[in-house]
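Figure 3 (text version): structure tokens given as input.
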């Protein structure tokens, strides 16, 4: 009976997730608010049904009553989040909220399957993070001085990265974190947000050559400290974010191409200097030749994805535990093995939907500072998803970056929820801008119509006098 439940559930989950994913893109072509509301309601229903389906399987396999309580706690949390946004931020993007909740639910499902203890920790972290970040859209709306804190962003970022480089704990060859009162913190996850605000503040103020040089030097210092810490995945994210923001702010393709050339040269130098970079490149080029050592992780990842096939093996039917660090860096491989490539493709499309929404906000918001902030945060999110999925599938060398909102990790979850909170705040600002512009346009039209009517009335009166 359990095998039948598991077998049926994997197809049901794919169908539900495919329906949800379709709605992510169908809503973009709907102008009517009523039609959009119906789509979002369907998305919410599909999300809850997928979540329920997965936990029915988890309970059927484990026979643990605690899983029912854990499921109910998750349902309450997601319901509270959805309702809080509808009550306190009615102008917020429903698509971004739904996608955020869907990604969190998928994370809870796969982490419960992989490691129940870590799943519970993740739930606690998410709950605390949501409580913290619910205020962020309000702060973005009310506080108007974020563009003035330029050098404070840079000072905090460089100071924290420097502390990690000197006293941080080494993990897989890189210094990326430190522990305070038993809590492990990865500062680079938060500093990338400050980095985006710093670059946005600088470029919105001036893009003259002397200012560009100074901004580039400070940005390069961030990247250099990360390289010294051997956090090359983080350094790559900072570097790409800077290049994208530089190109959009200056519209000079030569700057972007020059940055790519410099980055390519730096990657060659990093390959020569750092042994763990060489290990990852060797594992990427020919993992089977070093399967007993450097290539073991990526080989197990590829085996898992291949074994799962299009429809997956079903929850608890695969062997994702053979992949080292599967809850963090290689969670996408575990999803592909047990839920199927079709499910994994839908997951990629949902992440792409978030990325497109971020860029849409960046294109439409009129304030240059916030436009660059939205662009930078969107690039952070999109590029991090690309690095994670690309590394797991051997498209690029593994960089040790987590999949936002899905992988296990406190700093990663909190920083991503902060990004989503900022984006919601910017979306509300954009809505306010459109309403203000619409009201001004309406007034101008009314004034124009009034003047036209007045002229017509005057002409008619004069015509009547002339006729008499």
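Below: residues designed for each position.
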């Amino acid at each position: 009976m359990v095998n039948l439940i598991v077998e049926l559930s994997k197809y049901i989950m794919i169908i539900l997730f495919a329906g949800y994913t379709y709605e992510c893109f169908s809503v973009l072509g709907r102008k009517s608010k009523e039609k959009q509301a119906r789509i979002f309601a369907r998305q919410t229903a599909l999300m809850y049904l997928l979540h329920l389906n997965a936990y029915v399987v988890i309970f059927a396999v484990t026979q643990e009553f605690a899983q029912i309580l854990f499921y109910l706690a998750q349902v309450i949390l997601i319901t509270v989040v959805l309702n809080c946004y509808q009550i306190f931020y009615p102008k917020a993007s429903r698509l971004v909220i739904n996608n955020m909740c869907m990604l969190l639910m998928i994370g809870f499902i796969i982490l419960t399957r992989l490691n129940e203890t870590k799943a519970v920790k993740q739930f606690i972290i998410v709950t605390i993070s949501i409580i913290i970040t619910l205020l962020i859209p309000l702060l973005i709306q009310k506080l108007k001085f974020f563009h003035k804190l330029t050098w404070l962003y840079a000072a905090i970022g460089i100071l924290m990265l420097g502390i990690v480089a000197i006293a941080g704990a080494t993990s897989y060859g890189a210094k990326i974190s430190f522990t305070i009162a038993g809590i492990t913190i990865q500062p680079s996850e938060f500093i990338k947000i400050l980095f985006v605000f710093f670059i946005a503040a600088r470029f919105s103020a001036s893009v003259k050559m002397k200012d560009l040089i100074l901004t580039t030097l400070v940005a390069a210092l961030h990247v250099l400290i990360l390289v010294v810490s051997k956090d090359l995945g983080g350094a790559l994210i900072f570097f790409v974010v800077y290049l994208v923001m530089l190109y959009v702010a200056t519209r000079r393709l030569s700057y972007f191409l020059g940055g790519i050339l410099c980055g390519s040269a730096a990657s060659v130098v990093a390959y020569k200097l750092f042994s763990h970079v060489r290990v990852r490149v060797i594992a990427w080029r020919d993992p089977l030749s070093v399967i007993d050592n450097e290539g073991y992780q990526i080989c197990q990842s590829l085996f898992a994805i291949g074994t799962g096939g299009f429809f997956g093996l079903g929850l608890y039917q695969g062997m994702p535990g053979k992949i080292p660090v599967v809850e963090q860096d290689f969670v996408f491989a575990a999803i592909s093995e047990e839920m199927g490539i079709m499910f994994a493709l839908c997951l990629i499309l949902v992440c792409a939907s978030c990325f497109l929404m971020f860029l849409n906000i960046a294109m439409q918001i009129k304030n240059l500072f916030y436009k660059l902030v939205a662009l930078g945060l969107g690039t952070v999110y999109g590029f991090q998803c690309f690095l994670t999925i690309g590394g797991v599938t051997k498209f690029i060398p593994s960089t040790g970056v987590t999949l936002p909102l899905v992988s296990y990790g406190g700093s990663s979850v909190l920083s991503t929820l902060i990004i989503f909170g900022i984006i919601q705040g910017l979306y509300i600002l954009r809505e306010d801008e459109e309403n203000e512009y619409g009201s001004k346009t309406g007034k101008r039209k009314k004034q124009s119509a009034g003047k036209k009517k007045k002229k017509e009335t005057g002409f008619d009166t004069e015509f009547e006098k002339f006729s008499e």
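The longest helix spans residues 410-467.
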